[in-house]
Amino acid sequence: xxxxxxxxxxxxxxxxxxxxxxxxxxxxxxxxxxxxxxxxxxxxxxxxxxxxxxxxxxxxxxxxxxxxxxxxxxxxxxxxxxxxxxxxxxxxxxxxxxxxxxxxxxxxxxxxxxxxxxxxxxxxxxxxxxxxxxxxxxxxxxxxxxxxxxxxxxxxxxxxxxxxxxxxxxxxxxxxxxxxxxxxxxxxxxxxxxxxxxxxxxxxxxxxxxxxxxxxxxxxxxxxxxxxxxxxxxxxxxxxxxxxxxxxxx
Length: 250
What we know:
With 250 residues, the protein is α+β, with helices and mostly antiparallel strands. The longest helix is centred in the middle third of the chain and has 17 residues, at 82-98. The protein has helices at residues 3-17, 82-98, 143-148, 151-162, 164-167, 185-189, 225-228; strands at residues 36-38, 103-109, 117-126, 176-181, 196-199, 214-218, 232-234. Helices cover 25% and strands 15% of the residues.
């Protein structure tokens, strides 16, 4: 693990479990408002975030192009299952081509477990050019469609593999997924970025969308993270930081 990443994870743990307030606040403003984006209030191709209350029951609906719109998942999704491998491999391919501008960071919260703590659970990515020869849909996916189409996979992985103690069992009834800009872990930890709640359902995905145009890269714990947990942050009900912006020196 890179030293900076390890330090960031340790810092996020300290901030999430203590009343520590940084002594070097910054004048930088938050880069995103605390919004709830509901796909149902958007146009058909606007995408949206996922109704994550019960974990969803996604099948493999087809688009107008006769392409699957969602990743089919049945029950427990371990780290070696086909759906997760396909999602991760697709993520790698798209990420190499489009970079962080096509990427969104994922956080999950269980209000029944800890309403203030948001755990980093991975990233999604999407193709962004209709002229891309590998594009299978007939529209550019939105970041919300990238989540909705893989919602069940994301949730099953997080609650069974990554954080069962926070997302599994009695805590799995009201799981929420929140978004941050791609590769913004540092900005999120230092309270410069608010999280955006995803709301909606698979029915809000455009008929021109194809799930092959998006990928999911799951967070994987290594080393000390196996025992102590990984990146997490404290936010309010709107996804906004509850403490001042600060800088990490060095």
